[in-house]
Amino acid sequence: MSNTYKQAGVDKEEGYQTVSKIKDAVAATHNSNVLNGIGSFGAFYQLGGYKNPVLVSGTDGVGTKLRVALDSKVYDTVGIDCFAMCANDILCHGAKPLFFLDYLACGKLDSDIAAEIVGGIAQACKETGTALIGGETAEMPGMYQVGDYDVAGFCVGVVERDEIIDGSKIKAGQVIIALPSSGFHSNGFSLVRKVFPDFNEEFEGKPLFETLLVPTKLYQNDIFKIKDAGIEMSGIAHITGGGLIENVPRIINDGLTAVIEKTKINVPTVMQELAKRGGIAENEMFGTFNMGVGMVVIVDQTDAEKVLNIIDGSALIGEIQEGADKIILK
């Protein structure tokens, strides 16, 4: 009796079904710059309309937020997370996302689940004018348990060389403005799951998983609204794993300090509950979670009021001063 790939745990037909179920959603993200469709060995994207373009790339995954999604049988929002974690990173340099590729791995492929995950990615791509031009679905029995999935992505964007934002223009006297997060985004979930083991418990009138699975906010519209208003952003930081404490210093030059006032930050109630129930110290919270600040932008003081008027929920939370420490929370 001969063995087959299917008997070894890999069902190629389910893979074909996955492609069939996602092809329309993927095609809906394409524009005239995409020169081929699903099925080629590589995806073609034509770059034009720029004087001195610089490509900016980023890659990331969803992390253990997937455990909440899988256990709660909610699959589409983590696709948005996957895209947002990558796209928000390159946005920090002023880059507009051009195209995206995804990687989905599992123990046993279920085409319905895979299609929901990729559908979330496609939704986020469509909202931001980004083409979903390729991806890989890997069925790996023995590496993943049946029912487990992992998802990651890769984003490429473009910015004119003379419009790159890298923090080099940050100077003392400028201010730090927080753009609100939509929740935990996709960081710190190993600690979240330890403190909140029951995703179905009621929190503020609904199952907790609904709050935990709110997808990562896409900041492209906010950032380009600020740019289109003629406001120069000297620095942008995406507040991901490591919170404000680790991410803000990444854009601060030596000799400068980002002084942030914690009382000016609107911390989501679910994070307040997490800290209370888990006995988590404030410094640990600010060094792990975004604490309600999904992104910060640094602008001249004279532009602060304009930004606050443009972006709903934004708040002035600090300023740049001279000093040896890259960040001070007070």
Task: Describe the structure in your own words.
By secondary structure, the protein is α+β, with helices and mostly antiparallel strands. It folds into 2 domains: 154 residues, 2-Layer Sandwich (60s Ribosomal Protein L30, Chain: A); 156 residues, Alpha-Beta Complex (Phosphoribosyl-aminoimidazole Synthetase, Chain A, domain 2). Helix content is 32%, strand content 24%. The chain contains 11 helices and 12 strands. The strands form 3 sheets. Strands 8-10-5-11-9-12 form a 6-stranded mixed beta sheet. Helix 4 links the parallel strand 2 and strand 3. Helix 1 runs parallel beside helix 4 and helix 3 packs parallel to helix 4. The mean pLDDT is 95. It is found in: Cytoplasm. Belongs to the AIR synthase family. Its main location: cytoplasm. It is an enzyme of class 6 (ligase). GO terms for molecular function: ATP binding; phosphoribosylamine-glycine ligase activity; phosphoribosylformylglycinamidine cyclo-ligase activity.
What's the SSE blueprint?
Layout: H1 12-27, E1 53-61, H2 65-72, H3 77-91, E2 96-106, H4 111-128, E3 131-139, E4 149-160, E5 175-180, H5 189-195, E6 202-203, E7 206-207, H6 208-212, H7 220-228, E8 235-238, H8 243-247, E9 256-260, H9 269-278, H10 282-286, E10 293-299, H11 304-310, E11 315-322, E12 327-329
Parallel strand pairs: 2-3, 9-12
Antiparallel strand pairs: 1-4, 2-4, 5-10, 5-11, 6-7, 8-10, 9-11
Helix pairs in contact: 1-4, 3-4
